[in-house]
Amino acid sequence: MTSELLSGPDLGGGYLHQLSIDREEEGTIFTFHAQDGGSDAGGPPKGPLDVFGFVHPRSPCMFGGPRCWHRRFFLPPSEASRVRQAYNRNRFVLATMLDQSYDRVPAKIETALDEVVRRISEPLPAEKVDWYVGGSTAARLLGADVRPNDIDLGTTRAGADRIAALLSEYLIEPIAPTEWTKAGRVLGARAFVGTFREGARVEWSVPLGPDPSLPFAEWSGNIEGVRLTSASFHGHRIRVTRPEYALVRAAEKGRMDAAARIAEVVRPLEPDRELLTVLLARSGLSPPDQANLRRLVLGPH
What total number of domains does the chain contain? Predict the structure, then answer.
């Protein structure tokens, strides 16, 4: 394997950044590196980067040392300019993303979503993208009193590439085969839609390899298998996932106050009992916690 530094050291958000490319027999890998930059980078940084999908490598990094954070993308060398563009935007907006994650600065969800909806909804019919909004932002659009930190989009394999093209100047990670925490190997991308100081993260991905999707999986890439409804947003009617998804996820994270607020939206929609049963069964919540969540949505009977 041969490694080459393409950019850096660069500064951003209290971190020292480098961009490298590794050439292996199987192909090439671009890597975003980030390490604590200390006072020279305006640090110390406000928090770790695992909230943005970064991980520590198993062995010390030749560029960033033993505690360097990594994001890796499996792309050919011809993609270098696009990778570099995403790398630079990532470090430029990192301070803002850290403020939103660790200083409770509100993400500009509505402003960013307005731009996303406008771009994805306005192409010519032949270029239409099959997509929907999921996660806590979907629950918010349905009226839940929650404050999302980012916008999660669901789409198809073709849609993943198309959304990346439509949001190209906002990308903080290139559309690429990569590893996402918990999701495993995916084709995915991330963007920060807005200015350097105000905006919101947007994420989307589809699994790679054999179809691993479970019934009603929210991010399987098979839109027909997701339980969807619709919501009105700035004059558009957009598809969103059922709020049961966000309800169970909030409970898994121990955020029962948020779960209670989402339940207030589930009840008037007529709870999807089949979906709730499936999501609870694979949630990892204890039987008493599952029962409590059911009562929260369905009442005592």
Answer: 1
Q: Is 223 helix (H, G, I), strand (E, B) or coil?
A: helix
For helices 243-252 and 287-298, the axis angle rounded to 10 degrees is 140
Residue with tokens 């948020």: 258
Q: What would the DSSP string read from start to end of 197-233?
A: SSEEEEEEEEE-SS--PPTT-TTSS-GGGS-EEEEEE
Q: Which domain holds residue 10?
A: 2-78
Domain for residue 253, yes or no? no
Question: Does 158 map to a domain?
Answer: no
Residue 62 lies in a domain: yes
Beta strands, E only, 25-130 = 27-36, 69-74
pLDDT in tens, 47-83: 999 999 999 988 888 887 788 999 999 999 999 999 9
pLDDT in tens, 12-31: 999 999 999 999 877 899 99
**C-alpha–C-alpha distance, residues 188 and 208, integer Å:** 10
In whole angstroms, how large is the CA radius of gyration of the chain? 20
Question: Which one-letter DSSP state was computed for residue 255?
Answer: -
